[in-house]
Specification:
alpha/beta, Rossmann fold, thrh gene product, domain 2, globular
Amino acid sequence: MNIVCLDMEGVIVPEIWIAFSEAVGIPELKRTTRDEPDYDKLMRFRLDILKKNHLGLKEIQETISTIDPLPGAREFLDELRTLTQVIILSDTFTQFGMPLMKKLGYPTLFCNELIVAPDGEITGYRMRIADSKRSTVKALQAAGFETIASGDSFNDLGMIEESKAGFLFRTTDKLKQDYPQYPAFEEYSDLLAAIRAAL
């Protein structure tokens, strides 16, 4: 039995931190996992900026409420889910992801959890599991699934490498150059065709 594992931000929804960066006028917050492979380092950097600027969960959720899925993402997911099971594997947080899942018809989302103080300050985060995307794919395989994975960033490479088929989607030129063994696509129709062929 097959199961498809997709990254969330950059693949089916816009990058939340980039949208928030633009909303609050702090360009440093545009840094994502495309730029920084060390997720813990990236999150500590983000939380430090939030604290210095007195920004919390409320402000980020206000931005998220204005974000829509990428054009064609809902249709892509709906079609893909007629073919096989799909899990969104993301390093985002429940507090960020669930409002967006509503706009996508509530696909299954595996992500992490923010630690939020009573006043709304984001004081930390809890990762669901170490190396979560790779670990989840391995667990699915141990449960008898064959996995197919697609993402756009450094933190997606683990699940792509472990899967029977893996694809880059709307990624950077550097990742395409460094990982030429993974087909790279820009359009949902091409990604869907590649997944269909791998099933």
